[in-house]
Amino acid sequence: MSAPAERPAESSALATLNARAREIFRSIVDSYLSNGEPVGSRHLSRVLPISLSPASVRNVMQDLEELGLIYAPHASAGRLPTQQGLRLFVDALLEFGDLGREERARIDSQVRAAAEGGGFEGALAETTSLLSELTRGAGVVLTSKTDARLKHVEFVRLESGRALAVLVAEDGSIENRVVATPPGMPASTFVEASNFLSARIRGRTLAEVTAEIEAARRDARKELDDIAARLVEAGLVSWSGAGGSGDQLIVRGQANLLGDVRASEDLERIRTLFADLETKTDVIELLHRAETGDGVKIFIGSENKLFSLSGSSMIAAPLRDSDHRIAGVLGVIGPTRLNYGRIVPMVEYAAQVLGELKRPR
Fold first, then answer.
1. 103-122: string of b/e by CB count within 10 Å (b at 16+)?
2. Bridge partners of residue 141, in order along the sequence
3. What's the pTM?
4. In Å, how far are 32, 71, 300 from 28, measured between CA atoms?
5. Residue 223 DSSP SS3
6. Residue 204, SS3?
């Protein structure tokens, strides 16, 4: 397991820390990630691998506090890492382990089984649910509907004035959209429109086909009468989400974000996060940020506006297809004291499995 790709060089704050200060800082962060509680100098003096008195530990803790790496939540309390401290720890000191054999096998079997039964859409939903269960956070995945390479399209008549546009992608995913149709459209027009698109759409993305049809509109109208052309246009516009986002967002396990609430103010912050999850806009913006570059990205607290009030973090990895193009983003949202060392390789591996399923078979 490799560390996140964007791990920077050691910061000036880290460069000022000697081995003793690093050990104390690491112990404070480890304690926070383990139980979320402040840790004091007396406890640290007993658990540190080096022999130090509580007074010596307190002196080092004061230096760490002046550097902005730790703080005291109450006057007589121990110390907790600040957001800056957590970022420093994750970027420079955190050791990432390998994903266990059992967890790797479970992700493989459950995600691939879901793909067999429900196509890529089923695999996406299963992966987010599984990550939520394994991490006790909220699993999220963002994919772009317009990136899929398509295999087949068909229009099915419903009641008067409506039809069902069915688009089948090469990865097995199926997208259905109800579209408006002119009154009195004959059954032959639905067949004609389906054949027209299917002959041009195989192996290409919706964006590519839409651009081609737009450029060849005059030629298309020679092959189709005006009514059939309107049906083709209506189906494409509806499926690509014209007038709104073409992104698909799946969130699973939001209730896990309530599992570690200790006070009423924590509950209010979580409610704020829920509100953002419901609107989806900020989540999508954040996940799009995770698409650039390679490897896993970690967003902590107020580094993104989505988490500025809720005090949460996200671990996210891009999904890539056989051409190494971005096909989506997979992530886990949880408290800032997520087990980063365990969850990063888990998200990375799950993204690899989904990326393999995304490739044409």
1. bbeebeebbeebbeebbbbb
2. 250, 330
3. 0.65
4. 6, 11, 17
5. helix
6. strand
Retrieve residue 136's tokens. Answer: 């006790």
Integer angstrom CA distances of residue 18 from 57, 139, 295, 307: 13, 38, 30, 32
φ/ψ (deg, to 5) at 231: -65, -45
The secondary structure element, H or E, covering residue 313 is strand 312-320
Distance (Å, whole) CA 317 – CA 235: 32
**What are the DSSP calls for 227-282, one per residue?**
HHHHHHHHHHHHHTTTTS--EEEEEE-GGGGGTT--SHHHHHHHHHHHHHHHH-HH
As a whole number of angstroms, the distance between CA 58 and CA 29 comes to 16
* HEC readout, 7-27: CCCCCHHHHCCCHHHHHHHHH
In the block, tokens 């060849």 appear at 216
Nearest to 134 by CA among 319, 345, 358, 307: 345
Tokens read off for 253:
């396990």
Bridge partners, 30 (sequence order): none
Distance CA 51, CA 47 (A): 9
Q: What is the pLDDT of residues 225-261, one digit of tens each?
A: 444 444 455 544 444 444 344 566 666 776 676 665 5
Q: Give dist(CA 299, CA 83) in Å, integer.
A: 10
Distances (CA, A) of 76 to 36, 38, 67, 71, 134: 17, 10, 20, 12, 36
CA distance linking residue 255 with residue 132, whole number of Å: 10
Report the half-sphere exposure of 232 (CA within 13 A, side-chain side): 28
Helices (H) and strands (E) in the chain, counts: 13, 11
User: Which amino acid is present at 40?
Assistant: G
Quick: pLDDT tens for 305-339: 666 656 788 898 888 766 677 777 889 988 888 88
